[in-house]
TrEMBL record:
UniProt keyword annotation of Signal present: yes
Keywords on record: Signal
Signal peptide bounds: 1-22
Positions of transmembrane segments: none
CDD domains attached to this UniProt entry: SGNH_hydrolase_YpmR_like
GO molecular function: phosphatidylcholine lysophospholipase activity
Source organism, top-level taxon: Bacteria
Protein name stated in the entry: SGNH hydrolase-type esterase domain-containing protein
Domain SGNH hydrolase-type esterase: 67-257
Length: 275
């Protein structure tokens, strides 16, 4: 059983997603970088269980983005109201082979996998998803926090594992619902992060639990063949002075969303799935 101190502390922490450091091109590589920026986005994704197979997708022409999930995809904490969805949309629009970007955002604060399953049954959501070329999604943080709320003084690692199994089944149901409406859209799923890793370093169970949930999510997405997992757990492990959190100390601020967007772009452009 986890300590009572941990139980009280974890009640204050909200799991969303994290970010990574931006890479900076050297002057000698500037010309190459500018040339690459205008190329169509092309990504290879290994299919789970058969690393020799891959799916290749391109994003070009008129691109429609549909965003799904919780407060991170909603952009809570960003005073500019852009969030990572807006920032990535702006970057994609700069690509020479992309003519235009349109975005519809159905994300809502507090949504869990159960909420998203219901959302996917709405006629308007199905209508927009049908024409989507790119789907952004964050989900799972509130499923994990449900364990905390219901077991505040009796938290165990096993309780999180039990909930994770239920989460995995609901995530598969979510993927099936999306694919029953749209088989071809690229899905970019942004993983969980722990914004308080530096405050709760004495409780390694938190990072272990998040890593397990992220790993299982990644495996489910790999089964799809046209989905990428954007791993961003590492960013808040850099230290207290990163200035990546909003005033509520839970959600990312503008700086945090910039780094999330950078990782999403990196994943879409290079097919790099970071651990």
């Amino acid at each position: 059983m986890l300590s009572k101190k941990f139980s009280l502390l974890i009640m204050t922490f909200f799991l969303l997603t994290g970010c990574v450091q931006k890479s900076t091109a050297s002057p000698s590589n500037q010309a190459k970088a500018e040339e690459e920026e205008s190329k169509p986005i092309e990504t290879e994704i290994a299919v789970a269980g058969n690393e020799s197979r891959s799916s290749t997708f391109q994003l070009q022409g008129d691109i429609k983005i549909v965003a799904l999930g919780d407060s991170l995809t909603k952009g809570v904490g960003d005073r500019t109201k852009e969030g990572y969805v807006g920032l990535v949309s702006n970057e994609l629009e700069k690509k020479e082979d992309i003519s235009s970007i349109s975005t519809v955002n159905f994300a809502a604060m507090g949504h869990s996998t159960e909420n998203l399953l219901k959302k996917l049954d709405e006629d308007q959501v199905k209508k927009e998803l049908k024409d989507a070329d790119l789907i952004f999604m964050t989900i799972g943080a509130n499923d994990l926090m449900k364990v905390v709320r219901e077991n505040i003084f009796e938290l165990t690692v096993e309780l999180f594992q039990e909930e994770r199994l239920l989460y995995e089944q609901r995530l598969r149901d979510i993927m099936n619902k999306i694919r029953s409406t749209n088989e071809q859209a690229v899905i970019a799923f942004i993983g969980l992060y722990n914004p308080f890793a530096w405050k709760l370093a004495e409780f390694p169970e938190i990072d272990m639990i998040i890593s397990e949930w992220n790993e299982r999510t990644k495996q489910i997405l790999l089964e799809d063949g046209r989905a990428v997992f954007v791993s961003i757990q590492d960013i808040f492990q850099e230290g207290e002075d990163n200035n990546l959190l909003y005033a509520d100390e839970f959600h990312p601020n503008e700086n945090g969303y910039v780094l999330i967007a950078a990782r999403v772009m990196e994943t879409l452009e290079n097919g790099t799935k970071k651990d």
